[in-house]
């Protein structure tokens, strides 16, 4: 066994019952363990929240979405659309027209987004992770139907079992130079039959109504123009590879976004929050490491005689420094290992049994989501190693300055 490690280990395992330094070392170890466990648990919760948001948005958003680089809409022809469908890895291509509109049901009004989709929209496996009331049906050209966000349905007091009252949709016409005093000439109006409610995420539930593409195209006077195309990747193909192929085919006039890019802002916010939480808890861990600094400093004072004897026996300064650095490492690594194990067990129990509830009414998830990833364990370990080295360096330097006069 390495001599410096052997001495450091003996100091750590000191059996003096009333040795204050030994007690302080144990307290330091517990502090490192608690800090490490907290880091693992909090980072895993952020990972779980990030995955939850991705999953919820994936139930509503497409795997790939094509938008125009400039402008609100773009022209779609049958030949061009067929060319996209023939790209390797493209499974289903859905045409989309989306805009704001005013909805009225009985005496209630609400401004929301109307999303017109082609007939194959439901083939993309939408709403798999959400909740549905009613029948997912967009109707026919003669009787178009609407799939309504649960929040919109609440604002409008929509009754799915009422066959008489229909959902009225109003959309303003493009302004013309010739003025008119007839208010009916200022907007287009049509009706939809409510067929179902969906509940995925509050932002979608409170703002979206899904309707047939032909209905929305007629109401908004879009003709062959579309605001976006949504692509479902064929099974067995990589989303990123298909994205690269579609981007290369379309050129610079179009943007192809995956699910993360469609909600880049909120995912970036979560990552920034995770970073700041990591830095905050690391700072707390650094404060806790002051116990290591004080325990090693007091040990360097108490063990002056032992250090002087080692020097007399021919020990070098670097060996004395190694003893105290390794003493700090033993304290920190023991605490870190205990913290990593406890953090893992706590996250596993939360993942399996949902011990800690969110504390709010939710139809999607009841307990805090967690996801453990190996690089969180890696970066936590790196932080502990760095902090330990910094906390142990000064006491090690002090101890190496002992002379034979201290005998």
UniProtKB/TrEMBL annotation:
The lineage of its organism: Bacteria, Pseudomonadati, Bacteroidota, Cytophagia, Cytophagales. Signal peptide: none annotated. The chain crosses the membrane at residues 20-46, 275-296, 323-346, 372-393. The keyword Mitochondrion does not apply. Belongs to the ABC-4 integral membrane protein family. LolC/E subfamily. GO terms for biological process: lipoprotein localization to outer membrane. InterPro entries: ABC3_permease_C, Lipoprotein-release_system, MacB_PCD. Keywords: Cell membrane, Lipoprotein, Membrane, Transmembrane, Transmembrane helix. The keyword Cell membrane applies. This is Lipoprotein-releasing system permease protein.
């Amino acid at each position: 066994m390495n001599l410096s490690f052997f001495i450091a280990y003996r100091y750590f395992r000191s059996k003096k019952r009333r040795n204050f330094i030994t007690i302080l070392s144990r307290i330091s170890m517990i502090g490192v363990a608690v800090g490490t466990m907290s880091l693992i648990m909090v980072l895993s919760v952020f990972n779980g929240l990030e995955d939850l948001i991705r999953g919820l948005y994936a139930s509503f958003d497409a795997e790939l979405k094509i938008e125009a680089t400039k402008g609100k809409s773009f022209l779609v022809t049958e030949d061009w659309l067929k060319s996209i469908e023939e790209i390797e890895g493209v499974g289903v291509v859905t045409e989309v027209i989306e805009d704001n509109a005013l909805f009225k049901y009985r005496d209630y009004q609400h401004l929301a987004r109307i999303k017109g989709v082609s007939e194959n929209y439901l083939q993309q496996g939408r709403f798999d992770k959400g909740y549905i009331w009613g029948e997912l049906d967009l109707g026919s050209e003669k009787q178009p139907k609407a799939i309504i966000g649960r929040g919109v349905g609440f604002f409008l007091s929509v009754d799915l079992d009422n066959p008489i009252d229909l959902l009225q949709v109003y959309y303003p016409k493009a302004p013309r130079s010739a003025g008119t005093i007839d208010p009916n000439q200022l907007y287009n109006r049509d009706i939809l039959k409510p067929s179902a409610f969906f509940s995925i995420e509050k932002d979608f539930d409170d703002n979206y109504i899904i309707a047939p593409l032909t209905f929305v195209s007629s109401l908004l006077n879009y003709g062959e123009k579309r605001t976006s195309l949504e692509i479902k990747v064929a099974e067995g193909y990589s989303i990123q590879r298909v994205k690269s192929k579609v981007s290369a085919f379309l050129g610079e006039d179009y943007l192809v976004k995956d699910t993360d890019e469609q909600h880049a802002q909120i995912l970036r916010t979560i990552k920034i929050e995770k970073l700041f939480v990591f830095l905050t808890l690391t700072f707390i861990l650094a404060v806790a490491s002051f116990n290591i600094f004080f325990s090693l400093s007091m040990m360097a004072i108490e063990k002056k005689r032992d250090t002087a004897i080692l020097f007399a026996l021919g020990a070098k300064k670097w060996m004395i420094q190694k003893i105290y650095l390794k003493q700090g490492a033993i304290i920190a690594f023991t605490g870190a290992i205990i913290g990593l194990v406890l953090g893992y067990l706590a996250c596993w129990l939360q993942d399996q049994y949902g011990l800690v509830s969110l504390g709010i009414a939710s139809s999607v998830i009841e307990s805090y989501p967690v996801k453990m990833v190996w690089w969180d364990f890696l970066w936590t370990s790196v932080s502990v190693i760095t902090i330990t080295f910094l906390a142990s360096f000064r006491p090690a330097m002090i101890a190496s300055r002992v002379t034979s006069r201290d005998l």
